[in-house]
Amino acid sequence: MASNAPIGVFDSGVGGLTVVREIMRQIPNETIVYFGDTARVPYGSKSKETVTTYSRQIIKFLQTQEVKAIVIACNTASAFALETVKDEIDIPIIGVVKPGAKVAAETTQNGKIGIIATEGTISSGIYNELITKINPELKVYGKACPLFVPLVEEGLIDDPITLEMASRYIKELQEYDIDTLVLGCTHYPLLRHTIQKVVGDKVNLINPAFETAVRLRELLLQKNIESNTLETNHKFYVSDGAEKFKTFANTILPCDVATTKDVNIEQYK
Amino acid sequence: MASNAPIGVFDSGVGGLTVVREIMRQIPNETIVYFGDTARVPYGSKSKETVTTYSRQIIKFLQTQEVKAIVIACNTASAFALETVKDEIDIPIIGVVKPGAKVAAETTQNGKIGIIATEGTISSGIYNELITKINPELKVYGKACPLFVPLVEEGLIDDPITLEMASRYIKELQEYDIDTLVLGCTHYPLLRHTIQKVVGDKVNLINPAFETAVRLRELLLQKNIESNTLETNHKFYVSDGAEKFKTFANTILPCDVATTKDVNIEQYK
């Protein structure tokens, strides 16, 4: 695989752009091919089987773009599909959960870690599994926050309603005296300010996106497939609503998203 | 087509059950085959092309169940897909928008009608089109309420957060002095109590589900295909999460939903 080939990144919708943003900051030489499954968003309330089927279709599409590596920039798909799909392809693939679990385990001082994520990610128990594999002494408490994604998509980023929902969701975790809170859905870093207000300054917020970009960089070095060009030509694909996606992407990314294309994702199987 | 054949009813998810409830009340002899597209819910933020493709797949599935008629129990799919798909099949098919528009036009006293619905239904302009076709003097004001569906699905039916969101969404319509408000999404009748609190007793709330069941009954009589059996064996299918759907269905329907089956809907084309 050519070193200057692009990196495929996918998510159920726009949330994965917070991961793309970190990759662009940390490894600006790399070209991104992004796919957002906006026709079938959200993934967080869907079953493992459905999310795995959808992830498999997207990987097939990304392979037509000749990507050299894939990042699953969605916690639910990382939780449900990564272990299955990684054995089906011959290029490196990473998710966002393992990097997030690692940095949470390294950050906590009192050994009590909270996870906020979608229903799917929480019910999978994957953060608990990976964190206690690093250190069995650590305690992990999860809470599903199904309204956070629609609140972000409605643009209620810094709003009393979002603050009230965040207080309700996080109250239970605060009773466990957590000192570290993982933003376990790629939409949630967009609510960082509101969430920090609820938990106070003493709780560390973990954004797996940062650590995922670190891990990706290590992987490219390891496999000796870092890009050596300065000309990046990022591409953005979605399964529905290309124009709407472009507008949102331009508010998140440091580069100009000039075009976004629609893909009929169901044809990839 | 046999008169005792079932009626196919579909929606993006659980909302269409409010229509099924009305059909069961008004024409209890009819057997229902319901399909909820829970893997790809919500439809309200998706494009016309995507919603039409999905509707076509579901109609193909319902036809394998040998239905004698189809009800599109989803405003977005009625708005986007009905006109296209009705020419592709040889059984009667109706949506929820036309019945809702008719009763709204008949109900208003001051000629000012508000519509609350998904982004898709509002942007289609279909309620405006159908209501002014009945009476060009009527004024129609639409407002998309994207958070209502997730709020219902989170169970925040009678909650201060839902009341606050309803106040914000409906405020604009109140400034137009509407006396009639159409609940233009099949989820919204579940928020009827909260919405009535916001608009006050002087505004009539229109639930298209009731009028849709009336229209269906007329249609069956007209075509002479009413069922004459008392044995109904309703069937419920979804594209994901059959167990979760069953629990929700049992809180809405007057009959016991004993089993719900998963269908791989993408294979119908």
UniProtKB/TrEMBL annotation, chains A, B:
Catalytic activities: L-glutamate = D-glutamate
E.C. number(s) listed in UniProt: 5.1.1.3
Pfam families with a match to the protein in the record: Asp_Glu_race (PF01177)
Keyword Isomerase: yes
Keyword check for Isomerase: yes
Catalytic residues (positions): 74 (proton donor/acceptor), 185 (proton donor/acceptor)
InterPro entries linked: Asp/Glu/hydantoin_racemase, Asp/Glu_race, Asp/Glu_racemase_AS_1, Asp/Glu_racemase_AS_2, Glu_race
Enzyme class: isomerase
Signal sequence, start to end: none
Molecular functions per Gene Ontology: glutamate racemase activity
Pathways per UniProt: Cell wall biogenesis; peptidoglycan biosynthesis
Annotated residues for binding of substrate: 11-12, 43-44, 75-76, 186-187
GO terms (BP aspect): cell wall organization; peptidoglycan biosynthetic process; regulation of cell shape
Keywords: Cell shape, Cell wall biogenesis/degradation, Isomerase, Peptidoglycan synthesis
Family under the similarity heading: Belongs to the aspartate/glutamate racemases family.
Role noted for this protein: Provides the (R)-glutamate required for cell wall biosynthesis.
HAMAP family, per the entry: Glu_racemase
Protein name: Glutamate racemase
